[in-house]
Design a protein that fits this description.
This protein has 452 residues and is an alpha+beta fold. The chain contains 8 helices and 22 strands. A 10-stranded antiparallel beta sheet has the order 11-12-13-16-17-18-19-20-21-22, with no helix packed on it. It has a 6-stranded mixed beta sheet with strand order 2-1-3-8-7-6, sandwiched between helices. A two-stranded antiparallel ribbon has the order 4-5. A hairpin with a 2-residue loop joins β7 and β8.
């Protein structure tokens, strides 16, 4: 199911204002399973509008138009609607009453003829009542396409989308069920960051610790080689450009002789202050920070990061034992304050061992240990204000058992020991020492098999 979003207004085409309406509408449609096929910006010209309607008729199921519903002479959307649908305008009593309440009640002035024209709607239109403005939305259908017209004022458009458009579309159309999962990555290029990324929810999160009840993004990076490798493999990438003038590169290499395997990777990334259309001065001035704003740039948004890892494993037919060391550095600015930067350094050791294919009730065993040394400094004009330190060790010992009837699963032991400190004049949180141990069981019983 597809939709097209059309914004009407010469002020958009000459660059006087930026079209933010289309983005808001597209996000709202996406949430209910309607894909935005295209976004169009067209002029306040009757023939242009009519030709656009004809082009979209039966090409998409939904056309959402914003703009051109005001009381001025160049707001011609309603009249063009009547022309396209072979209809006439009539005065809607409910809309007129609402317009009077706003003009006479809020603005304390008599209603004029130009205000009354806001209550004119096509006879075939379903009125989408606008409680936060005077221009109503309109819903009209022709053959296989729904045309929805909304005011261009952003807060009025948002109200109608949330309270009228989306509920009516949900009621009219059967739509697919869509789940979106966005995984944000930073540092190494996304194509090199992992062999596999798993999004885990539900009971299986118990395998990753008690703090993972909300869900887990499990990144399988092969920094500790787990399979036999005989030879050399590798890959690399570099990137340049973009609104932040990105310069980045990353490389991964694995080498082995069939018994012993070594992994290495590194990355580097630098960006300048983000280029933006216009200036961020309005929002920042509201917080008394307007002095450092530069037109066309988001000041203090530049960043640089680098890091890498090296790992080695002894591999055999039924498992592996290996170790890896990784380090990452990141330095970036905070756009709220022009002189404040954050400097982060993370060092990590990992130990992993696994044996599988055992001829017993316990068919596989797995052991993991990780030591992390993390430092985070907030720096103002070159002076360190606060330093956050977090060091800790986590271990997991896990066993997978043979099937008991149709039930399969694992059980294990997890431990954690971490120490957190905040140092400096602006440190307002106490130091903490956390130690925890836990047992877990995870069992699966297939209820039915679904084949498609």
């Amino acid at each position: 199911m597809k939709a097209t979003i059309v914004t009407i207004g010469d002020e958009i085409l000459i660059g006087q204002i930026v079209d933010t309406n289309s983005s808001y509408i597209a996000k709202a449609l996406d949430k209910i399973g309607i894909a935005t096929h295209e976004m169009l910006s067209i002029s306040d010209d009757k023939e242009h509008i009519l030709n656009t309607f004809k082009m979209l008729q039966n090409e998409v199921e939904v056309v959402i138009i914003t703009g051109g519903l005001g009381p001025t002479k160049d707001d011609i959307t309603k009249k063009t609607f009547c022309n396209y649908f072979e209809d006439t305008l009539v005065e809607n009593e409910s809309v007129l009453l609402h317009v009077k309440e706003i003009i006479e009640g809020f603005y304390k002035r008599p209603i004029t003829q130009i205000n009354r024209e806001q209550a004119l709607v096509p006879t075939k239109a379903k009125v989408l009542f606008n409680k936060v403005g005077t221009a109503p939305g309109m819903w009209m259908e022709k053959e296989n396409t729904v045309f929805i017209s909304l005011p261009g004022v952003p807060y009025e458009m948002k109200y109608l989308v949330d309270n009228e458009v989306i509920p009516n579309l949900v009621q009219k159309f059967e739509r697919p069920y869509i789940v979106h999962q966005t995984i944000m990555t930073y540092g190494r290029g996304e194509s090199l960051i992992a062999e596999q990324i798993e999004v885990i929810r539900g009971p299986a999160t118990v395998l990753y610790g008690a703090g993972a009840v909300g869900g887990v993004v499990n990144v399988i990076d092969h920094r500790i080689p787990k399979e036999s490798l005989d030879g050399l493999i590798g890959r690399a990438e570099t990137r340049f450009g973009g609104a932040d003038n990105e310069r980045s590169g990353a490389a991964v290499a694995d080498v082995g002789n069939g018994l012993f395997a070594i992994h290495a990777d590194f990355y580097t990334r630098k960006t300048d202050d983000l280029e933006i259309p216009g200036s961020a001065i309005r929002r920042i001035k509201a917080n008394n920070h307007g002095d450092h704003v530069s037109n066309g740039k988001l000041v203090n948004s530049a960043a640089k990061s680098d890091g890498g890892a090296i790992g080695a494993s002894l591999t055999f037919d039924q498992g592996h034992v290996g170790v890896s060391y990784s380090e990452s550095n990141s330095n970036y600015g905070t756009v709220a304050e022009p002189t404040v930067k954050v400097d982060m350094l993370s060092k990590r050791w990992d130990l992993s061992s696994e044996v599988h294919g055992l001829d017993s009730f316990i068919q596989r065993m797995k052991f993991r240990m990780a030591y992390t040394d993390y430092q985070h400094q907030e720096i103002d004009a070159g002076v360190v204000g606060t330093t956050f330190l977090n060091k800790g060790v986590e271990t997991t010992l896990e066993a997978g058992h043979a099937k008991i009837g149709e039930v399969s699963g694992v059980f294990g032991l997890q431990t954690q020991n971490t120490r957190f400190e905040a140092l400096g004049d602006e440190a307002f949180v106490p130091s903490t020492h956390t130690a925890s141990q836990g047992l877990y069981f995870y069992e699966e019983l297939p209820i039915f098999i679904f084949i498609c």
